[in-house]
Write a structure and sequence with these properties.
A hairpin with a 4-residue loop joins strand 2 (173-176) and strand 3. Helix 2 runs parallel beside helix 6. Strands 1-3-2 form a three-stranded antiparallel β-sheet. Helix content is 74%, strand content 3%. The chain starts with a helix and ends with a helix. It is mainly alpha-helical and 321 residues long.
């Protein structure tokens, strides 16, 4: 048997370590990065129907976990990332940190301690942003010191994160620097207003889909008619063309009907005239022919019958005498 050390050396020669990338580690980095990007974005655009999806595989994992009737402790790498994502949604950065660092793939990096410190720092910052997106409408004011204690961040880091959100208009609030307090502005819509906005967006999407379907069938669109400004003119031209086609069709049909009617009348008149002339001619020829034959036949029959009768009567009279 070949020793195990020799087999390992043979595999190491075939695939050098510096050229090999573990696929599970690659997927773990991808899903963790997607978690840090997608969870704050989902919290900021909770009522937006047109929100974009940056990672389809990450959303697929989230939907699969939500469909499960009973969710147990995470076992695989994907389950750990999904559990960390659910913890980040509610602002629990400690549970998110524990689930993320429990993945064994991180030990494959060369500088494991630096990588884990960077992951923990990013988890704290993104969980802070998610917390402000989700619960800023509940508070009238927030203290920077309380946020620093909750997420175990430095004062400068919290101040930097909040300032970026206010500048980018992600957070409708005002930062009072002397008192280190975030004063929120109630610009977020209520639940009823959010449902009304969703209904309006769905109606607009339905209108756009119907317009695209109509454009695909007829080759014309509502926006093209509005921009061109010639929709009524085109409709009038189309109606005029349609009326012209109808007139031509009616004229052709009327001409054909009149021609057929004229042909039938001509045939009827010709037949009647021919019948009359034929009947008169036949009657004349028949009467003349019958008269001639009748006269000849009568004369012959009368002469022959008279001669026979006279001879017979004379003979009988002579014999009696």
């Amino acid at each position: 048997m070949i020793p195990t050390v020799c087999v390992c050396l043979h595999i190491a020669v075939q695939i050098p370590f510096h050229m090999h990338i573990n696929l599970e580690l690659l997927e773990c980095v991808y899903l963790s990065s997607s978690m840090l990007l997608e969870i704050p974005y989902m919290a900021a655009n909770e009522h937006n129907l047109k929100k974009r999806i940056q990672s389809k595989s990450f959303h697929h994992q989230l939907r699969q976990s939500e469909r499960q009737p009973l969710v147990g402790p995470p076992e695989t790498m994907r389950e750990h990332v999904v559990a960390a994502s659910h913890a980040m949604k509610i602002g629990d950065w400690k549970s998110c940190r524990d689930f993320t660092l429990a993945i064994k793939c991180w030990d494959l990096f060369r500088n494991v301690a630096d990588v884990k410190d960077m992951i923990v720092r990013k988890i704290k910052e993104e969980t802070l942003r998610t917390y402000l997106f989700s619960y800023s409408s509940v508070y009238d004011s927030l203290s920077l010191d309380i946020l620093r204690e909750m997420f175990e961040l430095s004062q400068g880091t919290v101040h930097s994160v909040v300032s970026k959100m206010i500048i980018n208009e992600d957070l409708h609030a005002v930062l009072d620097e002397p008192s280190a307090v975030i004063v929120t502005q109630r610009a977020e819509p209520t639940r009823q207003q959010s449902l009304a906005l969703q209904l309006a967006e769905k109606v607009n999407m339905l209108f756009d889909n119907n317009d695209k379907l109509f454009n695909a069938r007829t080759g014309d669109s509502y926006w093209g008619r509005q921009q061109g400004g010639n929709w009524q003119g085109n409709r009038g031209d189309w109606g005029g063309r349609r009326g012209g086609h109808r007139g031509d069709r009616q004229n052709r049909q009327g001409g054909d009907r009149r021609g057929d009617r004229g042909d039938r009348q001509s045939d009827r008149r010709g037949n009647q005239h021919n019948d009359r002339r034929g009947n008169q001619h036949n009657d004349r020829r028949g009467n003349h022919h019958d008269d001639r034959r009748g006269g000849r036949h009568g004369d012959r029959y009368g002469d022959r019958h008279g001669d026979r009768h006279g001879d017979r009567h004379g003979g009988m009279h002579a014999h009696a005498s």
